Amino acid sequence: MSLPLTREDLSGSEIALIVIDMQYNITAEGQGVLKYAEKLGVRDGYQYYYDRIQNIIIPNIQELLNVFRKTEKMIVFTKIRLNYFKVRNELADNSYKDLNEEEGVILEEIKPLEDELVITKEDSDIFQGTDLDSHLRENGIDTLIIVGVLTNECVEASVVRAIEKEYSVILIEDSTAAFSEEIHKKAVGLIQKKSVLITSTQDLLRLL
């Protein structure tokens, strides 16, 4: 699914790491999505997702953050506002109405430093209704390194909009996740068709 990156792929590029929606209510055991899956008795269906988040995604993003910080490259975190889930509850009758503010916080294991940009959005697309594009342009960024969740929702929507805005995009496949392996692989395949480079965490790190 992924191809080795070459130095030519990054040559002359100004890159930024974009960490999408790694917040408690989407990724953490006993909170948000997983909490309500337990209430509905469908928790087992999310085991793949939770295991991937804990054992693969968080460690990989930690490695990326460490290197981007050491090399002083731009890092952006995005999180989706809690009322997004509350609106979905009203429309679909899912039990999201008792979400608390702590569930919208980015995971402690990968939390932003004080000087790192955090964008709060109300849409799947990280650019819609935010000033992210302005921040990236001001810093001369032309290439986005995308990690986070969900591959088939906010990640895919953000990749599409980034391409429309003429950014180059590199998706780190083993730093993204969806609720099932099948959904994840299908989304990555669709993203790859949009001339996006798909690679692994270690493959990118060896070039930084």
Describe the structure.
- With 208 residues, the chain is an alpha/beta fold.
- The protein contains 9 helices and 6 strands.
- The chain has helices spanning 7-10, 24-27, 32-39, 47-70, 82-92, 132-138, 151-164, 181-192, 201-205, and strands at 15-20, 74-80, 117-121, 143-149, 168-177, 197-199.
- A 6-stranded parallel beta sheet has the order 3-2-1-4-5-6.
- α7 (151-164) packs parallel to α8 (181-192).
- The model is unreliable at 84-99 (pLDDT under 50).
Q: Into which percent range does the helicity of residues fall?
A: 40-55%
- Per DSSP, the total helix count is 9
Which runs of at least 5 residues are low in confidence (pLDDT < 50)?
84-99
Any idea what the radius of gyration is? 16 Å
CATH topology: Rossmann fold
Order of helices and strands: HEHHHEHEHEHEHEH
**Span of the ends, CA to CA:** 22 Å
Strand order of the main beta sheet, please?
Answer: 3-2-1-4-5-6
Which architecture name does CATH use? 3-Layer(aba) Sandwich
Instruction: Tell me the structural class.
Output: alpha/beta
CATH superfamily: Isochorismatase-like
The level-1 CATH class: Alpha Beta
Give the percentage of residues in beta strands.
Answer: 15-25%
Task: State the domain count.
Answer: 1
By oligomeric state, this entry counts as: single chain
Biggest β-sheet strands, sense, barrel: 6 strands, parallel
Global mean pLDDT: 86
Shape: globular
Per DSSP E runs of 2 or more residues, the count of β-strands stands at 6
